[in-house]
Each structure stands twice: as structure tokens, then as C-alpha cells.
From TrEMBL:
Transmembrane segments: 324-342
Record bears the keyword Transmembrane helix: yes
Record carries keyword Membrane: yes
Classification via InterPro entries: DUF247_pln (IPR004158)
Keywords: Membrane, Transmembrane, Transmembrane helix
Protein name: Uncharacterized protein
Length: 344
């Protein structure tokens, strides 16, 4: 507007720059190299809040103020007594002093294992938590492994090479079965050991699906998402099974082959893997090569045609008889045609 003077705001460039530099160099910005225990991100937690919260015991500092877990503190004190007695020390009080001193020596290292955004207590309270407050499958309910190693010492009398960039969807179990791929349960030390044999048999270790299975998978997936450089093998496993299972028919195929032991109702089992990896990011898909092999097989029309013929015409004696009769009739027709040509 005419006649108005422009307002000029003086900016203290030096002060603002110094403040931003301090923020960028702050201790909570960069993740310590030891960091391995995280608070579950809200984007993952919102899908099932209960899957990340302990039911009985607070292990580590994250849930130490939860009043619903206070009743079990006496149980942990009792186990601390048993831990000291296990050392066969003639002087339990002296042994307790030694343990406290030992944990105190690694307190700083243990503190670096927790995510920077965690609000940790002072040194004395932190050592007490590590010693006394040891549901262990939850991402937020952990203590550093080095603490367990120190306690053990003081009280003690196959993943295949995989992972390539990009997801590779595969057809469902029903479509694969129609395409000539058979499913076979295989014993393995790892549920991740899934492979396609040359005779078109997909070998999969068995998996028990029950109420607690979701808790285990969600916390492992959350750990993979939080830890820099961690291979997303469990996330990839969930994606692979979500590809295999689209309908109740797919679940039944895996159950009939002994691959899935389902303790849920059929509808919940069908949706189980679909909801596990929502909002996750997979940089290196662990089953990329396996998925390529499966898709290459599916592009060949002959196995699907063979399966169709066997299933519809060769499963019953009547079907076999009709096929033999058809072959004989065709041969007779060919012989008759040849004889007619020769006579002419």
C-alpha cells in the first residue's frame, strides 16, 4: 500500500547459525554405534498397541513407571536372591556388592545401547534396573546383552545369503499348486530357510500361528525397522507369506502340507501376515532370488497344463479308462486313414 514503510526485521545470523550447529551436533541427533534397543515408532505401534507393551514384567528402563507392572517387582527380587545363591558364594552380601560393582563398570556402555530419545534414569537407578529388572521378546522390554554376559560370568558355578533390492511378488499357494509347484514341510533350524527345488517342490519349515505369534513378529519387524543396516529378513518373511496366502483355500493348502499349524480361526489366519508389515520399508528383499525362480517357473505354461490334465482326467479309474479309450480310438483312426491312402 502506498505510503506504508516496509518493516525490516533484523536477523542475528551468527547467533542463529550457532544455535543450529549446536542442534546438529547434539548428543541426541546421532545414534550411538552401540544402539540396539528402541522405542517402537508410532507408525508401527498404532496397528496393535498391546503387541509392544509388557503384560507382567518391566525389563529395562522403558516401562519402569508402569503401575500395572509394580505387583511383579517382588518376584524379580526373589529371582535376584536365587541368582546370588547360584554363585555358591559363602558371603551373599559380598557377592551382591561384587555384582553391583561389575554392572557399574559397564553402566556407560549399557546406556549407549538405548535409543537417544529414551529418558533414562540416573546412574544408581539405572544400575538397579539392569540388575533387578531383567515377556523378553518385546522390543522395548530389553536390557543390553553385555549386561547379561557380565551377570552370567559373575554368577555361573543358518541364514542363507540373500537380499536384493526390490520386492518380487509371487502368486498365491493355490495358483502355484495349479501351476505344478508342490509344497513340502522341511525340518530346519530357521523358519527363514525356504527354497525351491529343481523338481518344483517348495520347501518351507513349519510355523505355528497362535495368539502370541503376532507379538513376536511385530517386535522383530519393529527392531529391523529401527536398527540401521539391519537386514529385513522377518519383514521379508511376512511379505512372502502374505503373497502365498490370499484366501482360506491358500491357508488350507499350507495346513494340509504340514507347513502351518493354525491355532486361530481360519479368517484370522488368512489375514495374519497381511497386517504385519503395513507401513514398513524394505530396502533389500531377502527372498528376491527365490521369488524370481518361482515366477520363472510360473511363466512356463506346460506345468500348469500337465497339472490340469492330471487333476481332471487321471485322478479316477474312470478318467484313466476314458483317456486310454480316446488314445486307442485316435490310433485306430490314424491306422484307418493310412490304410485308405495305401489302397489308393
Amino acid at each position: 500500500m502506498a505510503g506504508e514503510r516496509r518493516q525490516h526485521v533484523a536477523i542475528d545470523v551468527v547467533s542463529l547459525s550457532s544455535s543450529l550447529l549446536n542442534m546438529m551436533e547434539g548428543p541426541n541427533l546421532n545414534m550411538p554405534p552401540r544402539c540396539c534397543i528402541f522405542l517402537t515408532p508410532k507408525i508401527l505401534r498404532r496397528h496393535n498397541e498391546k503387541a509392544y507393551a509388557p503384560d507382567a514384567f518391566s525389563i529395562g528402563p522403558f516401562h519402569r513407571t508402569d503401575q500395572s507392572l509394580k505387583a511383579t517387582e517382588k518376584v524379580k527380587v526373589k529371582y535376584l536372591q536365587a541368582l546370588i545363591r547360584r554363585s555358591s558364594s559363602p558371603n551373599p552380601e559380598q557377592k551382591l556388592d561384587e555384582i553391583i560393582k561389575g554392572i557399574g563398570e559397564i553402566e556407560r556402555e549399557a546406556r549407549e545401547c538405548y535409543a537417544p530419545q529414551a529418558f533414562l534414569p540416573n546412574e544408581n537407578e539405572f544400575v538397579k534396573i539392569l540388575l533387578l529388572r531383567h515377556d523378553l521378546c518385546l522390543l522395548e522390554n530389553q536390557i543390553p546383552w553385555l549386561v547379561l554376559e557380565r551377570l552370567f560370568v559373575m554368577t555361573s558355578a543358518r541364514l542363507g545369503v540373500g537380499g536384493t533390492f526390490g520386492l518380487q511378488p509371487i502368486p498365491s499357494a493355490r495358483i502355484l499348486e495349479e501351476g505344478g509347484i508342490k509344497f513340502q514341510r522341511v525340518k530346519s533350524s530357521s523358519i527363514l530357510d525356504i527354497q525351491l527345488r529343481n523338481d518344483h517342490v517348495l520347501e518351507i519349515p513349519p510355523l505355528l500361528i497362535q495368539e502370541t505369534t503376532e507379538v513376536v513378529f511385530r517386535n522383530l519387524i519393529s527392531y529391523e525397522q529401527c536398527l540401521p543396516g539391519c537386514r529385513p529378513v522377518i519383514t521379508s518373511y511376512a511379505i512372502l507369506f502374505n503373497n502365498l496366502i490370499k484366501t482360506a483355500k491358500d491357508v488350507n493348502i499350507l495346513i494340509e502340507n504340514g507347513i502351518i499349524h493354525n491355532w486361530l480361526n481360519l479368517e484370522d489366519a488368512t489375514q495374519f501376515f497381511n497386517k504385519l508389515y503395513v507401513d514398513t520399508y524394505v530396502k533389500g528383499y531377502f527372498y528376491f532370488q527365490l521369488s524370481q525362480e518361482i515366477n520363472l517357473h510360473c511363466r512356463n505354461p506346460w506345468p500348469k497344463l500337465r497339472t490340469f490334465l492330471v487333476r481332471n482326467y487321471l485322478y479316477t479309474p474312470m478318467g484313466i479308462s476314458s483317456q486310454i479309450a480316446a488314445v486307442v480310438l485316435n490310433l485306430c483312426g490314424i491306422i484307418q486313414a493310412v490304410c485308405s491312402i495305401v489302397k489308393k
